[in-house]
Write a structure and sequence with these properties.
By secondary structure, the protein is of the alpha/beta class. It starts with a strand and ends with a helix. The chain has a four-stranded parallel β-sheet with strand order 1-2-3-4, with helices on one face. The chain has six helices and four strands. Helix 1 (14-23) links the parallel strand 1 (2-4) and strand 2. The longest helix is centred in the last third of the chain and has 19 residues, at 112-130.
Length: 134
């Protein structure tokens, strides 16, 4: 299951839903660290994601997501030992090489030519998979 912290900003509800998810057999929950109302206007609330993970203990693995743009973001969150994993979405759209950075535990300072080559491949994969609108 993937969910947000809640519907309205400042009214977190995911921690109430997680035990119900576990009880009906959900194997894992991913929590996006913002409410539906907040969308992308606020930073992800990783303290709340950590709280949810703590509250579930070993009963339901929690994957967190939101505002992971650098390997240091990944290392910081995983280093706290609260979540079982991290889902990277917008960070990968902005910087598709983030997974190389995480794997190699370093900033990959690539040239603009290398960046465009990666983005071209990304575009080509999308066209191959989904086709063109024209």
């Amino acid at each position: 299951v993937k969910m947000r912290t809640g519907i309205d900003s400042g009214k977190n509800t995911a921690h109430h839903l997680l035990p119900m998810c576990r009880d009906i057999g959900v194997a894992m929950a991913a929590i996006h660290g913002r409410s539906r109302e907040a969308r992308y206007t606020q930073t992800a609330d990783w303290s709340y994601i950590d709280h949810c993970a703590d509250s579930m203990g070993d009963g339901l693995p929690i994957v967190g997501c939101g505002d992971v743009y650098h390997y240091t973001d990944y290392e910081e969150v995983m280093g706290r030992g609260k979540v079982g994993g991290i889902m990277i979405a917008r960070g990968a759209l902005i910087k598709p090489w983030i997974f190389t950075e995480i794997k190699e535990r370093r900033v990959w300072d690539i040239s603009s030519t290398e960046r465009f080559d990666i983005l071209r491949k990304y575009r080509d994969y999308g066209l191959e998979h989904w086709g063109s609108d024209t």
